[in-house]
């Protein structure tokens, strides 16, 4: 019986969790961004979906992926949202609505914040310190998945109405997200940001790195630029700290 984890990861947090589950529970790992052009994906056997929370909801690329999915002989479905805070049950309800099925196990996994527009990311030393606690939670999640535990975080309809509004506002803003990206004179046109982009939204035009209108706001391009040559507005202009999961390599994140 197939055991597959479908994941989306910008700076490595979701991939890190996926690798931990793969090693412990013997799942295959598949990057959602590499399947996005397929017409149909069959979910069968034992399936996991790991993704970051954006504005309390699911990434747009995950929605696109889910709408291509067809369920066939599904034995166990788990979904895990990596996040800096809670999502009030919203992302899991979104997934259930799109797939038209009940998730067997859903859970949040706290990870270091990396949304540079609003938050200052931790230093590498601080991130490693945080992972001492994060790994304890991951071990609990691993145990639950190994033994096919069933659980869903409490869903609060009243609170979710407010945050659903924030999510809709964020989704509308994606249409103009490309306008916030800027490149300074530190750029060497190495092309790493192009290789990292999950939607092939970045290209080199007239010797200048350029963003198109299909941005996911994963901010991998900003966080992982080795020369700190990219900003995206907000706090990214005010500090030089960037974030990459300390246990994941750049090569693993290239799309």
Task: Write the topology of this structure.
Blueprint: E1 3-7, H1 13-25, E2 28-31, E3 41-52, H2 60-66, E4 69-83, H3 90-99, E5 105-110, H4 124-146, H5 157-173, E6 182-183, H6 192-196, E7 202-205, E8 208-211, H7 220-224, E9 230-231, H8 250-253
Parallel strand pairs: 1-2, 1-3, 3-4, 4-5
Antiparallel strand pairs: 6-9, 7-8
Written overview of the protein:
The structure is a single chain. The protein has about 260 residues and is an alpha/beta fold. Helices cover about 35% and strands about 20% of the residues. The protein contains 8 helices and 9 strands. It has a 5-stranded parallel beta sheet with strand order 2-1-3-4-5, sandwiched between helices. It has a two-stranded antiparallel sheet with strand order 6-9. Strands 7-8 form a two-stranded antiparallel ribbon. Helix 2 (about 60-65) links the parallel strand 3 (about 40-50) and strand 4 (about 70-85). The radius of gyration is 18 Å and the shape is globular. The two termini are about 30 Å apart.
Percent in helix: 25-40%
Characterize the biggest β-sheet. 5 strands, parallel
Shape: globular
Number of strands: 9
Helix and strand composition category: alpha/beta
Rg? 18 Å
Distance between the termini: 28 Å
- Widest sheet, order of strands: 2-1-3-4-5
Given as residue ranges, the uncertain stretches (5+ residues, pLDDT < 50) are none
- Count of helical regions: 8
User: How much strand content do the residues show?
Assistant: 15-25%
Average predicted confidence as pLDDT: 94
Could you state the order of secondary-structure elements as H and E?
EHEEHEHEHHEHEEHEH
